[in-house]
Amino acid sequence: MHGVIEGVLRGRELRYTADAVVLLAGIPGAGKTTFLRRVFAGDRSVRVLDSAQLRERWMPVLGVLPYSVWRPLVHFVYYVTLLAAMRPGRGPLVIHDCGTRSWVRQLIGRRARQAGLPLHLILLDVPADVARSGQQARGREVGPNIMATHCRRWPDVVSRASIDPSSAVPGAHSALVLTRPEADEVERIVFG
Fold first, then answer.
1. Of 32, 37, 4, which is closest to residue 120 (Cα–Cα)?
2. What is the pLDDT of residues 33-92, one digit of tens each?
3. Which residue of 6, 14, 95, 147 sits 20 to 30 Å from the alpha carbon of 21, by its own alpha carbon?
4. Which of 46, 12, 10 is nearest to 178 (CA)?
5. Per the domain annotation, does 56 fall within a domain?
């Protein structure tokens, strides 16, 4: 584990304030969804936003079309939902995003700051070949050009977040960079 950390308590538990926004980022296939399912198994008190939730919900209707056709609509609705979710008094929020798009990091950071919510980063830092294996295992692979773009941008995000979290995402208070084995050791994320 490296980076600026806001407290890993008892080695296997991450703690944040009750109103925290946590951006969980990593290249496609890094293990973000698996991580979230494990640390929040059965916990309905934390809101988790993931564009895959929209994609799955709309698949029965729009699935007859190639995903590339309706992906922009999914992303638009996802980011509008994300912005609306970042409001004081609504409890903790975890955002699942690749984190490689500068404009998305800017959007998340500015909205959290505008809402007065503390923002923290958890970055799953895995090698590209491990991420590709993760994509193959889930049966949903990102195109080679898109994956290459994510992989090219990712090291800069990790480097900046490790030195100063707010240089990666405006207003971020902390950053925790985890390898896959380190992420596997985290058992819970607690807010409060």
1. 4
2. 889 989 988 778 889 988 888 888 888 888 888 878 888 888 899 999 999 999 999 989
3. 147
4. 12
5. no
> Which CATH number covers residue 32?
3.40.50.300
Q: Choose among 155, 136, 119, 181: nearest CA to 27.
A: 155
CA 141 to chain CA mean position, Å: 18
For residue 11, what pLDDT band results from cuts at 50, 70 and 90? low
Using CA of residue 157, residue 149, residue 30, residue 28, what is the dihedral sign? positive
Tokens of 60: 């029965």
**Residue ranges making up the domain that contains 120:** 8-50+91-191
Integer angstrom CA distances of residue 137 from 50, 61, 109, 142, 155: 19, 25, 32, 12, 24
pTM score, two decimals? 0.89
169 is a domain residue: yes
Residue 16 within a domain: yes
Residue 83: inside a domain, yes or no?
no
Domain count for the chain, please give it.
1
Beta strand pairing status for 188-191 and 13-16?
parallel
Report helix, strand or coil for 125. Answer: coil
At residue 19, the 3 state secondary structure works out as coil
